[in-house]
Amino acid sequence: MEEKNVEVGCGCKMCQKFGWCPAGKWHKIIKFIIFIIILIIAWKLICGDGYDKSNIQKDTIVVSGKGEIYVTPDIATISFSVMEENMDVAKATDAVNTKIGKIMDTLKADGVLETDKKTTDYSISPRYNYVNSAVYPFNGTQVLAGYDVTQSIEIKVRDLTKAGRIVSDLGTLSVTNMSGLNFTEEKYDDLVLQARDQAIVQARSEATKLAKALGVRLVKIVGYSEGGNPTPVFYGAMASGVSMKSAVDAVLPTGENKITSNVSITYEIR
Fold it and tell me: Is the separation of the CB atoms in 82 and 97 below 8 Å?
C-alpha cells in the first residue's frame, strides 16, 4: 500500500523530523501573528503613517512693511437734520418739507449737485408726557404730547472753495445737528491700494535683506495680514482755496490726509 505523508505537529521541519518543536501547538499562531505584523508594516510603508506632516513646525521669519500717502482732500461731506414737532403729523411733515425745500434751493445756488444730496434718515416719532394721577393709587399715565418729524441729509461738496459759504448758509436755515464735516478724497479706495502696495514692496525688500543676513533662502509666503487707516494731518494755516469773500463764511482749513497701510508677511525659510 502506498504510504501517505502525514503532517506531524504544526507541520514545521522540526515536527516532521522529531515529532515535536519548542513552539508546540502555538507555532502556527505565532506564524500568523508575524504575518499580520508584516502586513501592517507594509501598509504603513505604502500608505504612510497617517501623521499630518503639515503640522510639522517650519522655520519662518516675519517681516513688516508700511506705506504712506499724503493727499490733499478734494471732497467735503456734511450731515445735518431738520426737525419739526406738532400734534398734527401732517403739519409737522409740511413744516419739514418747507424747510428742506429752502435748503435744497440754497444748496443748488451754492453749486451742490443733485446727485450729491442724499437723505440718510426720515422718521416720525410720537412723543409722550408722563402725568401723575392726583387720585389714589396715584398711577401715572402717558399723554401724547405731539409728533416729531425728522429728516437727515448728507451732502458732498466738490468745490472746496465754497465749503465755508455752504456751512454758513446751513446755519441760517434752521438746520439741527449739523455734523460730520469731513474732508476726504474721491478716489480714496485707490489711494488705500497704493499705500498697501508700498507696504508690500517694503516688506519684500526687508525679507530679502534679512534672509541674506541669516544665510537662508526664502521658500514661500505662509502668512499675511494687513491694517491701516487714514490719519488727518491739519496745518495751522487755512488752505488757500477756502472762500474769504464774506465775513460770515466759515473758515475751514482742509489740511492734508495721510493714508497708511501696515502689512505683515511670514515667509518659510530653508
Answer: no
